[in-house]
Write a structure and sequence with these properties.
Length: about 140
């Protein structure tokens, strides 16, 4: 084989090779005060965390003080989770007249925000080929 043929073959294999997927991300939500409604969870990459679109997500029915969900199909990398407990099931994160949330919310790593969402550096975690686990307190 000529050198050009080898390079072309290598490029074809690179293009045709399946993208490696990370193992499952298991998210356990605990300390849920009201067992009604659903928890709406978004998984974000660095580009989407500050107001962009989630790369994955889930709606988790709340029927106990602790519930779990598994997210699959993520590429290996860093992610952050934003979630809120839609206690009344209206599909929205309710707030008071001043814009303060009236329904529970939380972030990965149990990160806390000051006057807004938790910062990316506090909420980010890695999902590897082996997967990842996040335990988040919702209160």
């Amino acid at each position: 084989m000529t050198r050009k043929s080898l390079i072309a073959a290598a490029l074809c294999l690179t293009v045709l090779a399946p993208t490696a997927l990370a193992g499952p991300l298991t998210v356990t939500l605990e300390n849920i005060q009201k067992q009604t409604g659903a928890i709406r969870l978004g998984v974000f990459d660095a580009a989407g965390y500050e107001g962009g679109k989630a790369v994955s997500g889930a709606d988790v029915v709340v029927n106990a003080a602790t519930v779990s969900v598994t997210v699959e199909g993520l590429a290996p990398g860093e992610y952050g989770i934003k979630l809120y407990h839609d206690v009344n099931g209206d599909g929205e994160m309710n707030s008071n007249p001043f814009g303060m949330p009236t329904e529970p919310f939380a972030f990965s790593n149990n990160a806390m925000g000051r006057f807004g969402p938790a910062k990316w550096d506090d909420a980010r975690f890695e999902v590897t080929e082996d997967g990842a686990v996040q335990v988040i307190s919702v209160n």
